[in-house]
């Protein structure tokens, strides 16, 4: 197993730098198991939705789906990522100050799902993941402080 950093995953997904993208693709395709950590996945999605690339939620969902379909890509906790993916897909925007709408971020949803998973693994009662983020509070398991 190897692990890849966010910049390698981005070059692989975007194919936007001829030399680096070629190296990233060759590396990923040459290994039987490539770990994409939670941090790398969240950084990748944050970068893709940011100012430079401005991917829509549907595009971010497609990226996660594509990574799940890659035969050699592994996540730290695949089931947790899958639950976060489902929650992200089913989330709705909430109204915030000024009448604007805000969607929950994938990273916030993953935090909630990872916390629930850790409590289950430790056989402890999950009492909630506390957040001030109003959009994230709609996710099952999120609580207001």
Automatic annotation (TrEMBL):
What is any Pfam family matched here? Answer: PIN
Residues forming the PIN domain are 3-133
The record's PANTHER family line, in alphabetical order, gives: NUCLEIC ACID-BINDING PROTEIN, CONTAINING PIN DOMAIN-RELATED, PTHR39664
The protein depicted here goes by the name Twitching motility protein PilT
């Amino acid at each position: 197993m190897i692990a890849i950093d966010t910049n390698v995953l981005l070059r692989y997904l975007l194919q936007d730098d001829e030399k680096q993208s070629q190296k990233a693709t060759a590396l990923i395709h040459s290994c039987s198991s490539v770990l994409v950590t939670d941090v790398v996945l969240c950084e990748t999605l944050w970068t893709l939705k940011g100012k430079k690339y401005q991917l829509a939620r549907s595009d971010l969902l497609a990226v996660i789906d594509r990574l799940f379909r890659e035969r050699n890509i592994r996540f730290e906790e695949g089931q947790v990522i899958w639950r976060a993916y489902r929650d992200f897909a089913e989330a709705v925007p909430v109204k915030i100050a000024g009448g604007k709408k805000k969607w929950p971020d994938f990273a916030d949803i993953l935090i909630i799902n990872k916390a629930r998973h850790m409590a289950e693994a430790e056989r402890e009662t999950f009492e909630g993941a506390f957040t001030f983020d109003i959009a994230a509070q709609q996710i099952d398991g999120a609580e207001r402080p």
